[in-house]
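User: Show me a protein chain along with its predicted structure.
Assistant: Here is one chain, sequence first, then structure tokens.
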Amino acid sequence: MAGYFKDIWQGITTVIAGMEVTFKHLFEPAITIQYPREIKEMYPRARAMLVNTIDDCECCYKCQRICPIDIFVIKGIRAGKDEDLGMLPTGKPKLMYILEFDIDFSKCLYCGLCVDVCETESLHWESPQEASTFCRQELYKSFADMPEEKKQELLEKEAAKKAARAEAAAAKAAAKPAPKPVPRREDKAGEEGE
């Protein structure tokens, strides 16, 4: 009979010990967030999403070269010597037009190598609250903001420059005298034997 009352006493004391923890937190403010209506701010150093400030980008291709899985698609055209594209945050003049700067987040490892290598700090992390999407096409982000007409104009100018350079190289090659053929060893041996 003593064992019966002992078990009841242990049950009551364990329930009281458990309820002590519950009552301790009962009157504290709630830490639960009502998600769709309330959004918790992410930490400043969170690696949530890469963002490129295209005006500060110098189109050096370092981020593309260092990326272990090739998530970047970057295309740029060098500006003419008389064109002024502004200054970079580093104090250097901007020398490239950026036609394309795309990032495929479906393959990104979030390693941060590209952010570390960016000298102008145009490529940086931001913490959006809703980084998830319902389709993969939304994970492919384009940061270049150049209008399509301007892109075509620059590509035509670049093609004309390349054609002019190719013509100049061909003219230079045609102007050089043809080198004299070097006699082969068999020819020399045949001449000595006769």
